[in-house]
Hints:
2 domains, 14% strand, 8 strands, six-stranded parallel β-sheet, N-acetylmannosaminyltransferase, 13 helices, alpha/beta, N-acetylglucosaminyldiphosphoundecaprenol N-acetyl-beta-D-mannosaminyltransferase activity, WecG_TagA_CpsF, glycosyltransferase, EC 2.4.1.187
Amino acid sequence: xxxxxxxxxxxxxxxxxxxxxxxxxxxxxxxxxxxxxxxxxxxxxxxxxxxxxxxxxxxxxxxxxxxxxxxxxxxxxxxxxxxxxxxxxxxxxxxxxxxxxxxxxxxxxxxxxxxxxxxxxxxxxxxxxxxxxxxxxxxxxxxxxxxxxxxxxxxxxxxxxxxxxxxxxxxxxxxxxxxxxxxxxxxxxxxxxxxxxxxxxxxxxxxxxxxxxxxxxxxxxxxxxxxxxxxxxxxxxxxxxxxxxxxxxxxxxxxxxxxxxxxxxxxxxxxxxx
Length: 274
């Protein structure tokens, strides 16, 4: 694979790609012969950057990813303030639809498999995808039970379902860091050409959740819409991130840091700091 330019930020190497360039790269992989292991894409936001500092397994998953794309607007803003500008935000919830837009360029339909979301949600997403994007074929979907990642029989079942479907692209909407850790762990066994770790995107495609208005997205304030929509689930997380992320940025301003330098600053520390 041709080497793609990256920007070092907060210990991560983030690819300097636009949304169109990233979708084009994934489409190229989908059109190529299947490799020995499934390529996968991760999309860090501020919360991921904070988790990255304290989670060895997540760091390994990011190092082995084929694409690392900046989902969070603050990540992009930080890159520009530090003189290492990323061209734009590339959210997972934008990447999948843009990939589907480009699917008509592929010789034959783009086949996808949906892994994640609540029971019934992925099925609605599949219907919406095929109605809106005729060049995309949904080869299957599955909503794994809670704690499935600790159950080898369930993992084997999921891998078998994907193998039966033989999709070009696996959309993984399990939430971070579960989705990244699962894909990295099983990449050699996933019979898909590439996997996108895309959080709530399946919910958005199903119409089960609504994204923020476009103007909020463009202003870098999509997080505010999500906080207003799910305050009980997100308030503590966003509060923790709001305390830790400026420290990560300050460390970068002072000359950068090794990937593990904030490993000792944990969520428990953040809770105590509040």
